[in-house]
From TrEMBL:
It comes from the Bacteria. The lineage of its organism: Bacteria, Pseudomonadati, Bacteroidota, Cytophagia, Cytophagales. Residues 13-407 form the Amine oxidase domain. GO terms for molecular function: oxidoreductase activity. Pfam families: Amino_oxidase. This is Phytoene dehydrogenase-related protein. Gene3D superfamilies: FAD/NAD(P)-binding domain (3.50.50.60).
Length: 415
């Protein structure tokens, strides 16, 4: 169906998956991408001998869609050890496998983080969620995660020391107001799968999908000004006539009538520092409970050696919110790092900062999947993007597939 002009706006994950599924149905889609590369929010830069992901991101190996579209072996996935290193004042301790095997957690470290009852509750919750389908999780009740944890009976201690810093880093908001549906889904995924990164950075994920495309053309540096009816107007003044359009970016950017329909996205500031060597010395996330700028830290070369090829360690630091300018922020973070590691602030050499204004969609009603009809907004325009479902790699892939199915379906004869 080469003669059909199907345009996809955006070469992020959902746009690439939409193209892949359209190809399978015999179409020759064209992707319009505003930047000079694929991946959308999933990008990796090479700077001073380091690989820098735009924001600390991981792939969960239990994601159903990821298993469908990605070859984990070819990605050479490097996994994190389950659990976390908790930095509490001058003290640090490791809790292993809190979601995978709560009852086996070594007693001492856990007692500082939570109680014996917390351990039992963790085990019960893990068992319950493993039995619950993803669809059931997302059609269940939705309350703020902090309320859910309290109602489930977890102690204030474990909420403050583990759940808050761990899930703040995933939800990118301070108070765990994110829906309990998302909490249950993420908790289940972490109890079934492992957090991982491709050996050579997160960009390898969209690259792998792009390599599966054979009939799709991608036009880079082609920002779309607006979509009206079946017409796409590019920012350079060019006008394109389309048969079908898949908008795989937040649609208010290109459809003026949708402006004001979306809450401001969750943001994150991701700073990279280099040190002589890792003070964690294990592929694990470090959590900083309480009121700090730094929410979580990871030495990326502890996870995958390829993230550093200059002999120095690469530290990724996530900060959820700050109104400091970059110079002040770097200094403040260096001082916090000195506080938790005992290593002098000046030994943390600043590499680069990413201020990610659109890191995760800010959603009230989270879903696992939507019917095809819900991603169609006119007879010719279809939507794809994780903002339709929930903020995750799994959702981005699901939405791209659903949009493509809706487009294919629109060509089927009706009886």
């Amino acid at each position: 169906m080469e003669e059909e002009k199907i345009y996809i706006v955006g070469a992020g994950l959902s746009g690439l998956i939409a193209a892949l599924e359209l190809e399978k149905a015999g179409f020759f889609p064209i992707i319009l991408e505003s930047t000079d590369g694929i991946g959308g929010r999933m990008k990796t830069d090479e700077v001073d001998g380091f690989l820098l992901d735009h924001g600390f991101q991981v792939l969960n190996t239990a994601y159903p869609e990821a298993k469908k579209y990605l070859d984990f072996q070819a990605l050479k996935l490097k996994t994190f050890d389950p659990g976390a290193v908790i930095f509490d004042g001058k003290d640090s301790y490791i809790i292993t496998d809190p979601m995978r095997n709560p009852l086996k957690i070594v007693g001492m470290a856990f007692s500082k983080v939570g109680t014996f009852i917390d351990k039992v509750k963790m085990f019960t919750l893990t068992q319950e969620l493993k039995k619950k389908s993803n669809e059931a999780i997302f059609s269940g009740p939705s309350i703020p995660t902090h309320q859910y944890l309290k109602e489930y009976g977890f102690s204030d201690q474990i909420i403050a020391n583990f759940f808050k810093p761990f899930f703040r880093g995933i939800f990118l908001e301070n108070h765990l107001n994110t829906s309990s549906r998302m909490f249950e889904f993420v908790f289940k995924m972490f109890s079934l799968g492992k957090a991982a990164v491709p050996e050579k950075g997160m960009i390898e994920i969209p690259e792998m999908i792009r390599c599966q495309l054979s009939k799709t053309q991608i036009y880079f540096n082609s920002p779309v000004e607006k979509v009206e009816g079946k017409t796409i107007q590019l920012k350079n003044g060019e006008t394109l006539a389309a048969d079908r359009i898949v908008i795989a970016v937040q649609p208010d950017k290109v459809m003026k009538q949708l402006q004001g329909q979306f809450a401001p996205a969750h943001q994150v500031i991701n700073l990279y520092f280099s040190t002589q060597k890792s003070f964690l010395a294990r592929p694990m996330i470090g959590l900083i409970p309480g009121d700090h700028l730094v929410n979580n830290i990871v030495f990326m070369d502890d996870v995958s050696k390829a993230y550093s090829n200059n002999g120095r360690a690469l530290l990724s630091v996530s900060v959820l919110y700050s109104d400091l300018n970059e110079k002040e922020l770097v200094k403040a973070v260096q001082l916090e790092l000195e506080g938790i590691s005992g290593i002098k602030a000046e030994y943390f050499k600043f590499v680069k900062a990413y201020h990610i204004t659109y890191a995760l969609p800010n959603l009230d009603d989270l879903k696992y999947s939507i019917p095809m009809t819900e991603c169609k907004i006119t007879d010719h325009v279809y939507l794809a993007g994780d903002y339709l479902l929930n903020g995750s790699i799994n959702a981005a892939m699901t939405s791209g597939r659903t949009a493509a199915e809706a487009v294919v379906h629109s060509y089927m004869p009706t009886h």
